[in-house]
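Render this sequence as a predicted structure.
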Amino acid sequence: MSRFVIEIVEGPEAGRQVDLTGELEVGRDPSAGLVLGDAQVSRRHARFRLAGDRVTIEDDGSRNGTYVNAQVVHGARRLSPGDSVRLGLTVLELRTAEQVAAEPSAVRPRPQITSLSGEVLRPVPEAELSAVAVQAPAGIPSFLAEEEEPAFIPRELVERAAGSRSGYDELAALVDARVKRQANVAAFAAVAVSALAVIVYFGAR
């Protein structure tokens, strides 16, 4: 075994290891030393280089970039054992032979993602809500609420607005009047707060 090993720790081929003995090209191209089946990885994505005890990685002009410990790589970046390298959706880790001997794989167990059925967001039929409402103990509000007409606009005005232009104009005038009244109340409140602040300021002096 080489002194250094590149292991895929996240991705379709998690657990796969490749010895690093010199220069190792990584990408989707079949001629690469480490071929990744990741659509987010470029054909020639990045390149590992080993020179003595020094390991570096350099991006080969990839489309999505190369990241070492979540930092984007610009130029050659030196790696230390345990550093993670992300290319697309694949994460690699630089490991020493000693680390591999002590722990054969650096792949961490991932929690199972619960699959959701198509009925998760299924609307509950009214019959089921009615059954729950009947079975609910006293004091617990029912899930089935009666529909109520909005009280902020008279129903007669809404019906007239739907049937004629004059009714629509009347409805628009009502809404406009209420908006202006609320604006006047807000302006008065602002003036009152300012006056109170002035009184408190001079009273404190």
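Summary. The radius of gyration is 34 Å. The first strand starts at residue 4 and ends at 10.
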